[in-house]
Amino acid sequence: MKKSTFLLATLLITSSLLLSACAGNNSGSNASSTSNTGAATAPADAGTATNNAAESTIVPAGALSEPFTATDLSKLPAVAQKRTDTIIVGLTDPSGAFTPYFQQSGYDGNVSSLLYASLVTVDEKGVPVPELAESWDVSDDQLTYTFHLRKALKFSDGSPLTAEDVAFTWTIQLDKAYDGGSQLPTLNVQGGTAYKEGTAQTVAGIKVIDPQTISATLEKPNATALVTLGSNVLSKAYYGKDYTFGQLEYIKKLHEHPLGDGPYKLEKFLPGQEVRFVANENYFKGKPKTEHFIYKTTEGDVWQFVETGEVDYVSFSATEENVEKLKALGFVNIIPYTPSTYGYMQVNLKHEQLADKRVRQAIVYGLDRQSIYVDATQGAGSVANIPASPISWSYTEEGINPYQYDPEQAKKLLDEAGWTAGAGGIREKDGKPLTIHYLGSKSKNTDIFIAVAKENFEALGIDFQPEVFADFNSLVSKMESGDYDLVSFSTSMLTDPSEGLMQFFNGEITDYDNPKFYELYDQALATTDIEQRKKIYKELYQLFNDELPLIPTNYKKTVYAYNGRIQNLSVSPFIGLAGSLPNWTLK
Fold first, then answer.
1. I need a labelling partner for 293 at 20 to 30 A (CA). Which of 85, 127, 370, 425 fits?
2. At a CB cut-off of 8 Å and minimum separation 6, what does 320 contact?
3. Eight-state DSSP code of residue 316
């Protein structure tokens, strides 16, 4: 199975464009050592379609409803006070695959989000805005996208960035050997199939008009095309030097020696310790104001890193306990934040008991999600019922069943599905016990889930068998073997609602064959009319809410705490910190 674009709540893998890891290793009171500097160019609607995106990027989170300013910077630890040209942020250890479109984890994406810029990015409301491209045109039929690059663009080594580099970047994603997570191959660029099959030497729909102008023509409209095409640009001279059609393995040799065009250059990668960056003097917006940036990847107590000044920025679960403890430090600013993500349980639809939607519905009715995701987190979360974030313009609760905890309804559905009480109180059907094999990560939140689920499912007559993994790769291997019934995941940052359903198109979920779903999905992509898309997604979410081919679980509420000396820091639910980082300064 292809690498998933959605991973366990603590680890996320890259999607079509550069994505960030949203939650880190939990320590203490649900503290997270992971930053959100990625998701720089997650797909968004074309043109002005996203102007009706969420009105606010800061949503009240848990015990904090508005930003909190440090009250006493004199309490800042001496080690942090002495830093004058370096900012340090915590991050779960990346793999070292720092080439966009070929990354192994969202943490690789956090790194490359500082190394590469995009043709188009999105603002704090998810609306596309210029970056390397100063403007673009979209044809009346919504098929041809023409990008006009800024003049005198350079890669970090000083070499010129032109339309030829953009053409190369698009082309290799249409190569038959490409197996990364990019959505560009799904855009159906004219001639892309012929190129992939080897019957054409070039992609007919990609045209270099002049050094600063390039266009791509699609076979049919796609609402995500603007930002998907407008993602990171790779140097043809560097990444294409050894390119031969059908052979992309060579790029792996370049992963740890990236050549980008973003605000920073990679200085050194020390696995298990840190990733060091130095400001890029050739960055098109000007050299960043802070010379050095470090991702600290050492494992340890996140609270200790903050209290001792070893890191300047950390995210925490937005519990009242965490907020009050952070305020008491005196030297940190705090921002409440609701990311554009959702948590869910992937369902193994190959297994007979879960192929029946009544059983899936019974699982949701019979699981006390309020206790697990809201009460146990001191309000730092909420229950999810659709595959979309509450800050998405597509979000709706109209016609959506909230599946409030109702064990009696769950039992009724299991009875209707033919699962009757058997030996030891475990339900049986055709001589087989009703068993749920659950996979989860080792964390405090997983412990809470298992404790509640075990009690809830036992009351329903379900044999609940949890399996917990400390090592992520081991969990993925287990999942890919098919030996599971439910597994907990979280999405990466989502800009366009279509991204929240990519599990059904990237090889992760292959056994949901409802034609209506695919029809609605295609309809929602075929128009950039935001009101029309809202209507389509409402119908699609109602369908999902009834059939539950995956089980939405929760939304997270977070707070970011950062060194009060840092100026010009802002956080976007769509691009994290990447947009503001080049302007950070230490006063």
1. 127
2. 62, 63, 378, 379
3. E
**Shortest CA distance to 438 belongs to which of 8, 145, 30?**
8
Residue 423 CA to residue 420 CA, distance in Å, equals 10
Q: Could you give phi then psi for residue 292, rounded to 5 degrees?
A: -120, 145
Cα–Cα distance for residue pair 3/476, rounded to 1 Å: 9
- pTM as predicted: 0.78
* Pairing between β-strand 550-556 and β-strand 486-490 as defined by DSSP bridges: unpaired
Which residues is 133 bridged to in the sheet?
149
Residue 56's CB is within 10 A of a number of other CB atoms, namely 11
The tokens describing 7, both together, are 């991973």
Q: Mind listing the pLDDT tens digit for each residue in 214-263?
A: 999 999 999 999 999 999 999 999 999 999 999 999 999 999 899 999 99
Which tokens belong to 459? 């009351």
Q: Is the pLDDT of residue 335 over 60?
A: yes
Task: Please enumerate in sequence order all residues whose Cβ is within 8 A of that of 300, keeping only pairs 6 or more positions apart, or say none.
Answer: 27, 33
Report, as an integer, the average pLDDT of 160-183: 95
What's the DSSP call for residue 118? B
What confidence tens digit (pLDDT) does each residue in 107-122 have?
A: 898 999 999 999 999 8
Determine the Cα–Cα distance for residues 291 and 582; give it in Å rounded to an integer: 10
Q: In the prediction, which pLDDT does 268 show?
A: 96
Neighbour tally for 156: CB within 10 Å = 22
Pick from 258, 320, 310: nearest CA to 112: 258
Q: Give the alpha-carbon dihedral of 510, 512, 513, 515, to 10 degrees.
A: -120
Distance in Å from the first CA to the final CA of the chain: 49
405: number of Cβ within 10 Å:
17
